[in-house]
Specification:
Elements lengths: L7 E2 L2 E2 L4 H4 L4 E6 L3 E7 L10 E5 L1 H14 L4 E5 L6 H11 L4 E3 L1 H4 L6 H6 L3 E2 L2 H4 L5 E5 L4 H10 L8 E6 L11 H15 L7 E2 L9 H7 L7 E5 H9 L3 H5 L2 E7 L3 E8 L2 E9 L5 H13 L4 H6 L4 E4 L9 E5 L3 H4 L11 E3 L9 H13 L4 H5 L8
Parallel strand pairs: 3-10, 6-7, 6-9, 7-8, 10-12, 13-17, 17-18
Antiparallel strand pairs: 1-2, 3-4, 4-5, 11-12, 13-14, 14-15, 15-16
Helix pairs in contact: 2-3, 10-15
Length: 391
Amino acid sequence: MSPPGGWWVTGAPLGCPASYTEAMRILAIDIGTGTQDILLYDGLGPIENSPKLVMPSPTAVAADAIRRATHAQRAVVLTGVTAGGGPCGWALGDHLRAGLPAYATPEAARTFDDHLEKVEADGVRLIGSDEAAHIEGEHVRLRDLDLDAVRTALRAFGADDRIDAVAVGVFDHGAAPIEVSDRAFRFQHIARVLGREADARAFATLPVHLEPSLTRARAVLDCVDGLPAVFMDNGPAAALGALHDPIVAAAPLRVVLNLGNMHTLCFVMQGTRVLAVFEHHTGELTPAQLANLVRELLAGGLTNEAVFGSSGHGALYIESGPFEPQLLAVTGPRRAELLPALAGGGLPPVHAAAPHGDMMLSGCFGLLDGFAHRVPEAREAVARLHGHGGA
């Protein structure tokens, strides 16, 4: 259902009646490697009463379907759009190593590599959509966002399934030129965004302003059924969401560390302003390495080369260190295994952030902030979430 009054044209917000603004129903959906975290917010009642879901991620669902095909010794036929890889890519690799056939349309194949010749070299046969429909096997439609599934879940519990706008977050490496590292290309994007506006909210982007290289983000925005939408990288979204925790918000200068299933993002933040950042792969870090990276970032001596050389993405200083934050706020689904290493050792006091009592929805709360940053009509409703004095 589209918002009344035609307040959205080609991605640019126009006027929206105040009576409607208060009841704008924004779907915030943070799509990660392990889960997709979903919040439907209208700005009226308590946030604790808003519909919330934490469900398996689309890539995990696709991986299960591919594994079923492998177990049954059947071909797999991949259609849909460019989506998150990870688990479904690993499952496809197992399928091909088992000597079983795999077919994919070009858009679906870009889930696994932006350079289709690499996908073909791995053993996937590229086909058109018409041909795909006639191939016998397990048909798997790839996409990061399925609004019909969200609406169906809401209706199943008698909840209102009206969605007026979408704030969506995914992790996008970007389509790097073949001679450029995906990791380096990803961090160059982070540096460009923060170079324009050194604020975590700067990662919130209207569709018309999205960089062409962000192919996964573009694909997910194609799935919003024409609704007004804002895209935001889900790492910065989680950091913004952590600021909804009143203890985090009360610290004038803080480290916000998001330990995702696949990626770790660390910001030094003053309000929503970003002073320094590094990004790495969670699975590549031992607890001791993580603690050392945070210490070096705060000391002012962490280099981009050191992070990249240890299989990470990079590091960037917007302002020179050293920094003396009052708090180290930790969020993300893998924080339990890494958090103990961060206690002591010259680091600030550690706090496990729980914005509005729900760590798994940190990204959703940050997505709402990003949406409001780009859509003035939503600012009053989203500002109510910060009634505790958040940033």
